[in-house]
Amino acid sequence: MVNLFVWPGCVSEWVRLVKLHSAELNWITPKSERTIARHARVSTKEPEREEFTRLLSFCVRHGHWSVFEQASASFEIATTRAISPQLLRHRSFTFQELSQRYSDPSEILRDVKDEFKFDLRLQAEANRQSSAEEISIELRNYFWEKLKFIDQDIKSVYREMLELGIAKECARNVLPEYTTTRVHMSGTIRSFIHYVGLRGKENTQLEHRNIAHNIGRILKKELPIIYKAIKTVNDPSLVGWDFGNST
Questions:
Q1: Do β-strands 180-188 and 4-6 pair in parallel, antiparallel, or remain unpaired?
Q2: Angle made by CA atoms 239, 131, 150, in degrees to the nearest 5
Q3: Does residue 80 sit within a domain?
């Protein structure tokens, strides 16, 4: 299920549609790879040497990860409250998430259509916290029809609470986990290398895996030397970088 929404403040000027469970680059250290290489050569006579492909590749192959802390990046992530706690578990990053105490999510993340139509997959047999293939269209539509009325009731109760003066921090307790949210995720390149390596694996929930792969594809363009080096090593912690043609 592809769901799109519009960031606030852009409706009257321009519309930026964002795919749910995706990431967009906010910023990255300018000339990140050159910066990392220069800092890695802090003990040499020529830290500004032009050639640094071999140096960065050597650092990746031999696990000299600390040098990759010398550059950072930040991503803006569109997801749901069901997935954002999984992001927040990665404690080497810093986060800012849309506050339901301060804002009504429906007013901030505009034009969200049919939030209740999230993907429905069968329970995996070998992994109690994972899923398998999608259910049949007939069964999916059966549950979506039920969820439509539940969703209407929840939103009606939430709106009534706010209209009668109930604080947002209290009213938010009725909102479902499929409520959309926005997260800013900032960290070092070292952290992002290992985040994609872990969360890009097949045993990660599909929605979160899509976010990790999205970040990986962006960093592949921003850090081509580092990406190429990652792809040449046989490191189980970096398997998530094998994202291929995933969405």
A1: unpaired
A2: 135
A3: yes
